[in-house]
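Q: What structure does this chain adopt?
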Amino acid sequence: MTILKTYARLWADSLDDALPLLRELTGAEPDLRLGFEAVELAAVGDFLVIAGPAEERAKYAHASATVVVTDLDACQATLTAAGATLTTPLTAGPTGRFLYARHADGAEVEYVEWVPELVQRIIRP
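A:
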């Protein structure tokens, strides 16, 4: 298993309000923009913006980062062997598969295995 990318999470009421500054700071357009449940997500540079009503964003606030990996099954095995607890089991999502894990030290992270098309477009253009 290899870590391909790590995103810092940012929280916003509106993607349309958040993205202009991030475009300027990163010099890039969003790699991803999509709806997921009742929030919108956009990845630009090394930021993942989660936007929507505060009560909906709060459902995802327990994780401090999003980490894209090559093999989520191997990642899960490594995490559990190190004493991590899965707080959201392996689940299919719009970009591939994901899980949330609380590390033995208390840190909680979302781990994602993207579909091959996203890896080719964003990580290995």
